[in-house]
Amino acid sequence: MKQKYRITLLPGDGIGPEIMAVAVAVMKVIATKFDLEFEFTEALVGGSAIDATGEPLPAETLKTCKESDAVLLAAIGGYKWDNLPRQQRPETGLLGLRAGLELFANLRPATIIPQLIEASPLKREIVEGVDLIVVRELTGGIYFGQPKGTFTDEQGSTRSFNTMVYSDWEVDRIAKVAFEIASKRNGKLCSVDKANVLDVSQLWRDRVTLMAKDYPNVELSHLYVDNAAMQLVRSPRQFDTIVTGNLFGDILSDLAAVLTGSIGMLPSASLGLKNPGLFEPVHGSAPDIAGMDKANPLAQVLSAAMMLRYGLNQPEAAGEIERAVNHILESGYRTGDIMSPGMTLVGCQQMGELLIKTLTS
Ligand code: IPM
Ligand code: MG
């Protein structure tokens, strides 16, 4: 009997629907090839959900996600919704999805693709061979810490504040994910914090250090976040697995992504313990090119591959997609964001057609 999976699709905003269409077309071919059955259900999140229902994460969407085997998200946000109150912003929908599904572990690989090395803003000698993964804590820290808010103090000044807080168990569970990943990769884990200044970072460092005893094969190091940012630019090859909190991970994962010169190529996975995982490109919704058939769908397609590998345990199918992407790059096809002299410029749709052709030939 065919293995059947229920997949929730969240195309979101901006270029989301165009790149999602390519990923779905690819998944359909994969289903035939590997004798799988995908039941796709589309749901609203972000700006498109705000327009349709008034809220960025309708209860119905969260329910649909919870009932599925995996969630594939494209991108959310756009200028149109930037000035709404925070509760009605697209970003709030994404954060609600992460919290609602308890997806505390965000995996963001940043690997140099040899065919695209010229697209990196850094010199070839520095980025050649970079292959790292940022493991970002995703449901705690300053993004969700209480109390938070805005108030008027006795002097009449308006003051706003957020709280950066972690519990020992929150650090432990993300550290465990990171140690496991590091032990399956190169056995090198770097924990990033700001323990020279922040109490919350001292707890982080103490808990990660404690866990290292359970992983004698993993070599653990610690860096302060400012130094980590510098080291990532200066000599990124020293890193294998990086584990860090929500805010530092947000910043460092963008930095790591741009090293590869192709943020349009990078997938990510967000995983929890009891709910389906969420898979999405690292890049945003690029409202400036939405609907123009200029978007690079490859990060979305590779997110579908990551979903097959980490969410549905179908590594062969994932590998097939990854090989097809490589083949297309090797054949010289590029979207605008990764274009270089001598290559063939294609649009989003054509990139999809090339993938299908590769997968079916
Ligand atoms: C990311 C994004 C989000 C974040 C925004 C859109 C809320 O920057 O996924 O990195 O800050 O986590
Ligand atoms: Mg970010």
Describe the structure.
This protein is of the alpha/beta class. The chain has 2 domains: 1-101 and 276-361, Isopropylmalate Dehydrogenase (3-Layer(aba) Sandwich), CATH 3.40.718; 107-262, Isopropylmalate Dehydrogenase, CATH 3.40.718.10. The protein is 40% helix and 21% strand. It has 12 helices and 14 strands. It has helices spanning 16-34, 47-53, 59-66, 90-100, 124-127, 168-184, 199-211, 225-234, 246-259, 298-311, 315-330, 348-360; strands spanning 3-12, 36-42, 70-75, 105-111, 131-137, 149-152, 158-161, 188-193, 219-224, 241-244, 267-271, 277-281, 333-334, 344-345. It has a 10-stranded mixed β-sheet, with helices on both faces. Strands 6-7 form a two-stranded antiparallel sheet. The protein has a two-stranded parallel ribbon with strand order 13-14. A hairpin with a 5-residue loop joins strand 11 (267-271) and strand 12. The radius of gyration is 20 Å and the shape is globular. The two termini are 25 Å apart. The structure holds 3-isopropylmalic acid and magnesium ion.
Secondary-structure blueprint:
Layout: E1 3-12, H1 16-34, E2 36-42, H2 47-53, H3 59-66, E3 70-75, H4 90-100, E4 105-111, H5 124-127, E5 131-137, E6 149-152, E7 158-161, H6 168-184, E8 188-193, H7 199-211, E9 219-224, H8 225-234, E10 241-244, H9 246-259, E11 267-271, E12 277-281, H10 298-311, H11 315-330, E13 333-334, E14 344-345, H12 348-360
Parallel strand pairs: 1-2, 1-3, 3-12, 5-10, 8-9, 8-10, 13-14
Antiparallel strand pairs: 4-5, 4-11, 6-7, 11-12
The chain binds 3-isopropylmalic acid and magnesium ion.
